[in-house]
Amino acid sequence: MRPAQVGNIALKAVFCACVVYTITHLTQKDNTEARDALNALHSGLHSGVETVQRYVIDTQNTYQSREPIISTIPAGGSVNQAGLTDTYYLGYGPNDGGDLRVKFETAYYEAQGLGNEEGLDSRSRVDAKNNYILSKTSKYIDESYPTGEVTLVTGLWDLGRGGLVKSDFKRPFSQYIDGLKANFLMSPMPKILFLPREFAEQIREFVFEKVVNLRVIPLELDQMEKWYGDAHEDMQKIRTDPKWSDIYGKDGWLAKSPQSTLKNYNTVVMYKIFMLRIAARLNHFDTKSFLFVDAKHMCMDPHRMITKNMGIFKEHMQKFLTTHFFYGPSGETHGFVNAEFMKWLNLPEHSQHKVCRGGVFGGKRESIEMVAAVYENIMRQHLKDGYMGTEENVFSISLYRYPQLFMAMNNDNACVESTSQDKTCEGFTNTANFCAIFDWAYHGGPKRDGKRVEYQDRG
After folding, report:
1. What is the DSSP code (8-state) at residue 92?
2. What contacts 23, CB < 8 A, 6 or more positions away?
3. What is the CATH code for 3-413?
């Protein structure tokens, strides 16, 4: 679909898709299997076969499949009164993403053989892999201003917050469904929504009656678990270890937090960027840029989250957009032990540091591919080492170690004359420090003496 068509056609559909995982483990005796796997990747991606196995090498010299493949199922949905097909099957196969995907997946695959020498620390191992990926793929990065529409992306699963006992983190899932309906789904912009099939069915009637420009991709929690492989097992070992969760005692905030008490909290939040990558590879609405927004983001105003207000987002999506705030010295950051986290950030222990927000981020396809590959190497390594925070820690490490990939907005600078939260400029109100970029988008930026003030990042 061309961008010009997006505003003219009400695409009111809920998708069904089947995610097929092929997990194969091989023992590496030499590089023969590696070359064969890489050849299979190239052959499969270019030949249009239904499925193709994609492998990576981990530090134990075994192989495992990299990513779920959503395969096409013959459409068989009925036709509603509007003439729209009730059930539309979205195929995510080995050809989606085209040559760009081949280039980045090949670089990621090849990089897994680097940084495995004895005596290297974890940061050096990851840098060896990621610097190789950057050396092979940086030439594909397009830093021009993204024109046209932006596809919004989100996902929603019931992680069990409603069942938490005596917890400040308890939330009924209905609150999230209501927020999804009131905020994300009401934006007229092109939208991709990842949901378990159960909830896709629950919102079907609402979607057909009220929602435009939406595609829903059913995705189950167990499918994400399988994609993570050993990394998911690492998450569970860490979160159930009292040495990690009880750093402030059994009644401390971390012990009561979602990343500690809910099995699949980090399964989902750390997978956000990979949802964005799948949406960008499918590119159903044929847009140049893609923005992930939490399903119930408190700063999301659907009546103002429209194409003409995307200027500040697009300015930052010339590379990869992230927003951050400054976090004071502490024993941990979102559960990631300070001493180790500061090593990843290349800062002295107990330093004030930037923490990227996980509620909104995005970019053009090339930047998404690059950051997703870098992010994955970091994530898998620190989980293997026994350290865990949330997706915000992984984004923060990525920003500090590879700043050339990002255009980051400092949420503390909602107005150019402010260096702290919740300041106001003429005709402009900053509703919260993590809403800064939304406020700039909705209000066109603050004004002084009747003129728009240009955003200036002061750190």
Report:
1. B
2. 64, 65, 226, 229
3. 3.90.550
